[in-house]
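Lab notebook, page 48
Experiment: co-folding of the full assembly
Goal: obtain a model of how the components sit together before planning crosslinking
Operator: M.T.
Materials (sequences as entered):
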Amino acid sequence: MSVRDDVLQIARQAKQAARFLAAAGAVRKNQALEAMAEAVQSQEAAILAANEQDVAAARRAGKNTAFLDRLALTPERIAAMGHGLRAVAQLPDPVGEVVRMGPRPNGLIIGKMRVPLGVIGIIYESRPDVTGDCAGLCLKSGNAVILRGGSEALRSNQAIFQALNAALARSGFPPGCIALVPTAEREAVGVLLSLNDYIDLIIPRGGEALIRTVTEESKIPVIKHYKGICHTYVDDAADLAMAEEIAFNAKVQRPATCNAMECLLVHAAVAEAFLPRAIARLRNAGVEIRGCARTQAIVPGVQAAGEQDYATEYLDLILSVRVVRDMDEACAHIERFGTRHSEAIVTENLARGMRFLKEVDAACVYVNASTRFTDGNQFGLGAEMGISTDKLHARGPMGLEELTTYKYIILGNGQVRA
Amino acid sequence: MSVRDDVLQIARQAKQAARFLAAAGAVRKNQALEAMAEAVQSQEAAILAANEQDVAAARRAGKNTAFLDRLALTPERIAAMGHGLRAVAQLPDPVGEVVRMGPRPNGLIIGKMRVPLGVIGIIYESRPDVTGDCAGLCLKSGNAVILRGGSEALRSNQAIFQALNAALARSGFPPGCIALVPTAEREAVGVLLSLNDYIDLIIPRGGEALIRTVTEESKIPVIKHYKGICHTYVDDAADLAMAEEIAFNAKVQRPATCNAMECLLVHAAVAEAFLPRAIARLRNAGVEIRGCARTQAIVPGVQAAGEQDYATEYLDLILSVRVVRDMDEACAHIERFGTRHSEAIVTENLARGMRFLKEVDAACVYVNASTRFTDGNQFGLGAEMGISTDKLHARGPMGLEELTTYKYIILGNGQVRA
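Observation: model returned without errors.
Model output:
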């Protein structure tokens, strides 16, 4: 069979399975999630063996340490996948929830019922632990899922998929609820993105290049995540000790993540009091500082920050710092350079906190906390399918509810339109 | 200036205006809507004069009666536009609503705040009364709007736009809140669809060909409406008198609309009792019946319905009728031929009503009522920007809430991530 036929067959089966999943109740789905968690752990040896082959091949291909670290599975990571599946089983089932239900003057009762999207395609890079998370969230939200992981992780993903799929079959679920594209051929992605009659949503996870390619090529709606250039604005009414803790955490705790701070904005009135201590502490942690002229005047030895710095997602221990005249200038900077991901203000002034919440256009807007909290788990969603920097359908961390849509339900007793 | 420059300038100004609108409160927006309503009525003579020119040109170009009827404005239609704007002013403001707000174990308080989408582009055909409705809904939901009506209505739209825009200026709103593409050039649509840095959403309204072109060409997310092949299923537990009223209304009351019934499905056990009377009544109203073999056996003189009939949106006084073995067969027929728009069951059996609501995949699912109610006004949304047959972001009639997105707001007192 051709790659096209392979992918088409998977998509057809997924669409069939989606009808079953949409009608499956929470008890049944939770039992399946438990069985999936057990299967991943009982198949640990097979999964690790497959993963070893992937890692060896990637090492031979000259992949760097960071890549190999994302690719490698350990007994701990496999246990975490099992915990993740059990955690999803504990979450409330979003399917069937009815909201905004009420009577109309003619006696019709109208409301919105939450229902699964149908079939979700996920295109991700070589992190095999994502396989378990995505399969669990899609199953619980009643969606069939088609997984397309990075080609370097194909053996690992196949081993995980076999464990999950066997557990589903034992739980009485039809084939197709979880599908894995069985080839590393790039052509398969193109085929997947063309199947808008079978797939309802595509979620690409990975680098900017992957996401741009998917978005441009797809005939299916895409929810995506581009860059995270996140700011922390230290207002003149900030508690400066708190601001220092928050800025330090947002930059240093895990700098390679999309919710880490890339630029610190400081009100001119507190710059001299705040910057010397804060920058000394950041430098102690290995952070390179690039600052505006005001920052350079206050703290010796700071390299100049250019426009290019403000527009860069460093994902590294580098921070640009800019002293701003006032909150207007801070908001204008965020409007210009921010990527609508996560933005924070540190202030004890209520009006300014409220204004920041209202006016700053981003998926997540913080008052007095570190932007590092932008994460499905931290937000109480249990897990996440990714973080959306889009505005349509879902914004920010995407959990179970974001994988659903609604339908209007209308109850009558014979109403006709006049 | 080139068409591209023209459209780009409008889009830039709209993006600027969107920031103002996002922060404008309900009182201010409602005053503007009142002023817009007044302006449309005080400018009635100018609008009618411009419309007369459009109608004359369309008549010379040989457009048919239905086209001319949609294009023509009357004092009544202008008054209705004014009423529509005032009705939107009366609706609650969706912007700023906060939902699902609550504490996390670390003391962070997290919720979702409803915010405008930003800039919305609407591409529609030659119905100038749509201009007022869309402008009103976008303004109330805090969005800037770029209107691109059919080229045959350009003079009418310009006159309406001038009235609306002057009212906004008098109310202290900046230019760009409502924009009209000032040219009938087709090139302008292509430019509009390429401006994904300025426009957040495109809504095409019109025939299937227009919608397909827009969807294929757009780099901006599109919410759209394709066909409405709506079914009414008369269950064996139906109140047959009620079923007759509902079927008659769904077919006859306004057959050219997308929510009119195109196919009647009847349980075999009640077909003989139900069909002769129901079909006689429909025929009396001028409806042509095309039926399956069972229907033909029960009612003399019925033309045979083929697969092609079941797949056709007649938008006319034609109805296909099929006798089904049971509810499973009815649901399978809807799954195969339905367009996920509006589907109805008539039954007195609670379990079957519940099953239909749960299992039928459509934007609007009815028990014991006519599908003709699928409409923003009828659903209590005040007005509608259109009806979505998509699954993402909005489904069914789109009102104010559907023109918004959300952002997460996170209130802390110094939380950092461990």
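Interpretation: The mean pLDDT of chain A is 96.
Next step: discuss with group before ordering constructs.
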